Automatic annotation (TrEMBL):
Family that this chain belongs to: Belongs to the sigma-70 factor family. ECF subfamily.
Source organism per UniProt: Alistipes hominis
Superkingdom as given in the UniProt entry: Bacteria
Location of the RNA polymerase sigma factor 70 region 4 type domain: 99-151
Pfam families noted in UniProt: Sigma70_r2, Sigma70_r4_2
UniProtKB keywords: DNA-binding, Sigma factor, Transcription, Transcription regulation
Protein name: RNA polymerase sigma factor
RNA polymerase sigma-70 region domain boundaries: 10-75
């Protein structure tokens, strides 16, 4: 990979990568850090990256960095914060549909949340998501199905959030 090819990757994928990370972490500074780290790793491993697979490589690296970040955060926050984030259905009174949807997305397991964001927010195909996460296409479809079932169960009727 040449410098010009790398620059092209930065221009082409940085915004999508940033949005994906931001949707997962909901922290602007951490998202920017992970974008930088992802592109740094792309540059460091530029000889090993197959031509045309830069996008998959970047999103795979970003996904792994997100998982590492979430694991590290959970290690230091303890179980108390996890219990505080669990609310009964009566306590789930939100005026903003987007805020409510993000709340339910955050309750999903990290893999399911990432796949929902990649599929429904970023528009990736099942094959692309399988490459990024090192899962089979069937596993990707199962995780997305389970995530959607969980969201439907939590949200219920669409009129509940509108």
């Amino acid at each position: 990979m040449t410098v010009s090819e790398y620059d092209k990757c930065v221009r082409q994928y940085s915004d999508n990568l940033y949005r994906f990370i931001l949707k997962s972490l909901r922290n602007d500074e951490q998202a920017k850090d992970i974008v930088q780290e992802s592109f740094l790793r792309l540059w460091e491993n530029r000889e090993a990256v197959i031509e045309g697979k830069e996008k998959s490589y970047l999103f795979t690296i970003a996904y792994r960095l997100i998982v590492d970040h979430v694991r590290l955060e959970k290690r230091y926050t303890g179980d108390e914060t996890l219990l505080k984030n669990r609310h009964s259905p009566a306590e789930r009174e939100y005026n903003n549909a987007r805020e409510m949807l993000e709340h339910y997305l955050n309750e999903l397991p990290p893999m399911q949340k990432s796949l929902i964001l990649l599929r429904d927010y970023e528009g990736y195909s099942y094959r692309e998501m399988a490459e990024m996460t090192h899962l089979t296409e069937a596993q990707v479809k199962v995780y997305i199905f389970r995530a959607r079932v969980a969201l439907k169960k939590n949200i219920g009727d669409i009129n509940n959030i509108l």
